[in-house]
Specification:
15 helices, nine-stranded mixed beta sheet, five-stranded parallel beta sheet, single chain, binds flavin-adenine dinucleotide, Alpha-Beta Plaits
Length: about 425
């Protein structure tokens, strides 16, 4: 069964009239709140998908699941298309899925092909609306109460089943705990290769995915291809790529006076496919929400105070902790401090640590080595304190403070404490 849906986008009155007049069956109606909807007159001519791809999309139901995989075919065919796995974590979409959809759009500049997103869970409607503003021709969702928790067998079976149907050239997962668990199972089932923890992706004209990742302890960056088997599967660390929704990229294009390309508009054409399924296997592997939220996830922190070798003694960390506490920020470290045992490895930022994307990053006594900078590419606003105005971190910083952190830090803390007490007194 298929039908047309109207996306909740803001439309001018003129545009609404234009759409209504363009439907040959007068099936586009307006409700009392002025929102467009499709009524029973719709004959599924799909003309609206052409004249209003940002507004109208096709919903399909009833595809078959569990068809046995034709692995031999998959291995030998070259295939087209990119499939991105969208992960849910703590009832939210993990940003890495949206980052991968945005990257996929960049990749298909080389060779036009479809991007599909796949999401598994229960009560997914709200998530679909969010994914919808990222580039994907089709969002495939599998909704079932038993998918509320991660089940390796079921997730593997479902993803492989959709791969069998879509036959993509590329399949991308976030390198999250769940993605790292699931991607190898899918790759094994499909008898194809997997490159884990990629830090860069490229597609060559032959549609071969160039998967870059650190190798030999991070001393070299290896470029890996999966020349024969398909799909080419990669996991990618969060925050390596920027999530760019369609509206943002369009307004950026307008700002740079370039008209939005036709391809970008077409990419907004999304179908939704809903498939019922039977859960496969009894053995559930559950990543509990509680278990996850207890752990620090630096990649999702909004504010970070990162410390480098400018901190001279371990006991001096206390003063930085005070700053972090006042700001509600997470503490992070450059590698030498982690190696010295001053901080946990889950708090290391950089190439061999975490890639972070906070709104605010304060670095104290960090020089800005290439390896450190690789981990802060997507930090929004960076304030750096360093004695050396020529340190590389100062070029990356939005606000570079040349000075001794031992002088700057107490002053900063004092001012913050004062500000807080003023706010407290006013309240
Ligand atoms: C394969 C590989 C992977 C790596 N991965 C990572 C990684 O993931 N993360 C990482 O961080 N590094 C990584 N490194 C190490 C990296 O090359 C650098 O050695 C490291 O980032 C330097 O850390 P730092 O900035 O704290 O120290 P330094 O480079 O020693 O810089 C200290 C800075 O503090 C400033 N300073 C000193 N005293 C003060 C003061 N009182 N007030 C203000 N400023 C002061 C100095 O001017 C200097 O700029 C990796 C290296 C390799 C080879």
């Amino acid at each position: 069964m298929a039908y047309i849906e109207v996306r909740k986008t803001v439309l001018t009155e003129e545009k609404k009239k234009e759409y209504q007049n363009a439907c040959p069956f007068a099936a586009i109606k307006m409700d009392e709140q002025g929102a467009l909807y499709i009524d029973d007159n719709c004959r599924l001519c799909k003309l609206c998908l052409k004249f209003g791809p940002e507004t109208f999309f096709l919903v399909e139901q009833g595809a078959e699941l569990g068809a046995s995989l034709d692995i031999k075919d998959l291995k030998t065919e070259k295939g087209d298309g990119i499939l991105v796995f969208i992960e849910l974590e703590d009832k939210k979409i993990h940003p890495v899925g949206l980052q991968l959809l945005s990257k996929a759009q960049e990749l298909i500049e080389v060779r036009k092909q479809e991007i599909h997103a796949i999401i598994l869970g229960s009560e997914l409607e709200d998530y679909l609306a969010q994914i919808n503003s990222y580039p994907a021709e089709k969002i495939v969702y599998y909704s079932h109460p038993d998918l509320k928790v991660f089940n390796l067998e079921a997730y593997t079976e479902i993803i492989c089943s959709y791969v069998n149907e879509f036959r993509p050239a590329v399949l991308l997962f976030g390198a999250t705990p769940l993605g790292r668990h699931l991607a190898p199972a899918v790759a094994t089932r499909l008898k194809t290769g997997l490159t884990a923890d990629c830090t860069a992706l490229d597609l060559n004209p032959e549609n071969e995915l160039i998967q870059t990742r650190p190798a030999f302890g991070g001393n070299i960056m290896a470029e890996i291809k999966t020349p024969v088997a398909r799909p080419q599967i990669a996991t990618v660390r969060p925050n390596i790529f920027k999530a760019q929704n369609i509206e943002t990229s369009q307004s950026e294009q307008e700002n740079s006076n370039k008209p939005p390309s036709l391809e970008a508009k077409n990419l907004n054409l999304a179908d939704f496919v809903k498939i019922d399924f039977e859960v496969y296997g009894e053995n559930k592997h559950i990543l509990t929400e509680k278990g996850k939220s207890d752990q620090l996830d630096l990649t999702q922190a909004d504010k970070i105070v990162a410390l480098g070798r400018g901190i001279k003694k371990q006991e001096d960390l206390k003063i930085a902790e005070k700053l972090a506490q006042l700001l509600g920020a997470q503490l992070a470290f450059s590698r030498p401090l982690v190696e010295a045992g001053w901080g946990s490895s889950i708090r290391q930022v950089g190439l061999s640590g975490r890639s972070v994307a906070p709104k605010l990053l304060i670095t104290l006594g960090v020089s800005g080595s290439v390896q450190f900078l690789a981990g802060i590419k997507n930090a929004e606003f960076v304030i750096s304190v360093n004695l050396d105005e020529k340190a590389d971190i100062m070029k990356r910083a939005d606000l570079a403070l040349v000075g001794d952190l031992y002088e700057v830090l107490p002053e900063l803390i004092e001012q913050l404490v004062q500000k807080k007490s003023e706010v407290g007194n006013d309240a």
